[in-house]
Amino acid sequence: MNTVYSIGELESFLIAILVLFIGHSVNRHVAVLRKYNIPEPIVGGLIVAGIITILHFNKVSLQFSLSMQNTLMLMFFSSVGLAASYKLLLKGGSKVFLFLGIASLYIIIQNGVGVGMASALGLEPIMGLIAGSITLSGGHGTGAAWAQTFQDSYGINTLEFAMAAATFGLVMGGIIGGPVAQRLINKNNLVSSYGVGGNHHQDHPDLVTYDQLEEDRVTAKRILETLFALLLCVAGAKWFGGFVQESGLTWLKMPDFVYALFLGVVITNITELTRGFKINKESVDILGTVSLALFLSMALMNLKLWEIFDLAIPLLIILLTQGIILAFFAYFVTFRLMGSNYDAAVMAGGHCGFGMGATPTAVMNMGALVSRTGPSPQAFMVVPIVGAFFIDIVNAIILQGYLSVIG
Fold first, then answer.
1. How confident is the model at residue 201 (pLDDT cuts 50, 70, 90)?
2. Please, are residues 380 and 83 in contact by the beta-carbon 8 Å criterion?
3. What is the pLDDT of residues 334-367, one digit of tens each?
4. Long-range contacts: 32-35, Cβ < 8 Å, 24+?
5. 311 DSSP 8-state letter
6. Strands (E), 14-135
7. pTM
8. Which residue, among 105, 136, 131, has the nearest Cα to 118 in the 3D structure?
9. Quick one: which of 234, 274, 311, 359 has the fewest CB in 10 Å?
10. DSSP labels for 173-217?
11. Cα(81)–Cα(381) distance, integer angstroms
12. Taking a C-beta distance cutoff of 8 angstroms, is the pair 208, 285 a contact?
């Protein structure tokens, strides 16, 4: 029987920050991690998760109190919305639908690979969908929801497989995105149109870089104003989600972070059109970057790596194959169809993130890149909007199509 130690709220928050410091320190001393832009939360999170796994096998369990994790995620997506002015949306709107088409095509391929390999390895074809877009493009939440569906409709218990596959995908997506994008940037001599280094906010006040090293000139008043706007989006998203649930408006039911993102878009564009008050983009940059870093740190330090150890070898083979195929798809297809430029390379790295893990993983990949190679505001608009909203709808439609064939 395991001895369980409960870690308090404050102590858990301190450990989450420590995870980031560990990742930063390791990246600074390990050249290969720095070269391929492996995100700091992935590095620090895996180290801490590894320690927790060792303790687990020695009959010691740690339980963190991470009540802020969901709020931090909503704050980050709110910052994405607050950064999306109508000028930026008009400039890059068509790219959203192009990227959605590419991501949708990959989901079809991803499920084809999963079902085909599952059948070849002697597993139920449904297990191929679990090791396909259900968990890899959908994440833990989608995996849990479909596991319940499979239990009710087919009498197959897939929950443990789903959680393990989603965990594996989260890690794999964070590992492959940086090397893929960096290889594209180096091979094609690509540079950000905003340049590398320097103070981007001085030359482009409306630019949101999500660069942890960017020097920002903000005041306490601007931070408070922006924090108010972010928390307004968070509170509004939770209220709207509850309203949709209670009203039975199933056609409006979406994850809370989608509501938060679109509330941010509404607020920032209303303030720009009325010109009575303007959201300070440097403050959005700081708070969005901090929220994302802390959210990912909390998510990764809470990983149960031993769930991956419990994977059946055939399922592990499928997942490794999925990671390799996504890397090649992002490198040869996503990059070229998105324009073969710097923004396309960053979006290819982002595609690796949410094609194997989740939208925050995609943004983490892109954030690690732009910190070294320069801003890509188009990528930070296109990838989160597709990954946070449209892809879930497309994923559900494609999955229903596969189930009608194999079910």
1. low
2. yes
3. 999 999 999 999 999 999 988 987 777 888 888 8
4. 35/182
5. S
6. 60-63
7. 0.77
8. 131
9. 274
10. HHHHHHHHHHHHHHHTT---TT-SSS-HHHH-TT-----TT----
11. 8
12. yes
